[in-house]
Amino acid sequence: MAPSDPRQTKFVLDESRIPRSWYNIAADLPVAPSPYLHPGTLGPIGPDDLAPLFPMALIGQEVATEREIEIPEPVRDAYRLYRPSPLYRAHRLERVLDTPAHIYYKYEGVSPAGSHKPNTAIPQAFYNKEQGVRRLATETGAGQWGTALAFAGALFGLDVKVYMVRASYDQEPYRRMLMETYGAEVVASPSATTNYGRSVLAETPDSPGSLGMAISEAVEDAATRDDTKYALGSVLNHVLLHQTVIGQEAIEQMAMAGEAPDTVIGCTGGGSNFAGLTFPFLGLNFREGAKYRIIAVEPEAAPSLTRGIYAYDFGDTAKMAPVAKMFTLGHDFMPEPIHAGGLRYHGMSPLVSLLKEHGYIEARSVHQRATFDAGVMFARAEGILPAPEPTHAIRVAIDEALAAREAGEARVILFNLCGHGHFDLSAYERYLSGSLEDYEYAAAGLGEAAGTDAQARLLVVWPAALHRRADRGAVRRGATLPPMRRLPSRRATRDRAAADHPTDQPAERPGSAGGPGRASRG
Question: Which is nearest to 85 in space by CA: 14, 188, 25, 176?
Answer without folding.
Answer: 14
